[in-house]
Amino acid sequence: MTTPSPEFGLDITHASDVLVIEVVGDLDYETSDELLDTVVDHLAPDTALRRLRLDFRRLTWIDSLGLSTLLMVHRHTSAAGLTLELDNRPGFLDRMLDLTGTLDHFTATATAEGDPTGTGAGTGTGTG
């Protein structure tokens, strides 16, 4: 018998030029489209947004499609001129990003903006 995954949800907070999306539960085959659709829906051409912060403090799991979705989110935010920040990354997410060679891809912006650690302002260290 398999244990059902925690209920998935997105808690959205919008401030003047920052959109924060907290990812709750598993980011996987069944839930990834919801995250991508939510991001795309908030990227209107006339948006005042400058940063998108994805908060992973309540992320319970991520699979390869979840990772693919994060890469697509990065592509969309880059095209819109937004900075993407991955906040409060749990250890398993950092491990997946590191093993797949994508950690630097997501943290390079923080390094370029003057954070020599590459963790970025508010991106967290994975320790929650």
From TrEMBL:
<dbReference type="InterPro" id="IPR058548">
    <property type="entry name" value="MlaB-like_STAS"/>
</dbReference>
<dbReference type="Pfam" id="PF13466">
    <property type="entry name" value="STAS_2"/>
</dbReference>
<dbReference type="InterPro" id="IPR036513">
    <property type="entry name" value="STAS_dom_sf"/>
</dbReference>
<feature type="domain" description="STAS">
    <location>
        <begin position="8"/>
        <end position="101"/>
    </location>
</feature>
<protein>
    <recommendedName>
        <fullName>STAS domain-containing protein</fullName>
    </recommendedName>
</protein>
<feature type="compositionally biased region" description="Gly residues">
    <location>
        <begin position="117"/>
        <end position="128"/>
    </location>
</feature>
<dbReference type="InterPro" id="IPR002645">
    <property type="entry name" value="STAS_dom"/>
</dbReference>
<feature type="region of interest" description="Disordered">
    <location>
        <begin position="109"/>
        <end position="128"/>
    </location>
</feature>
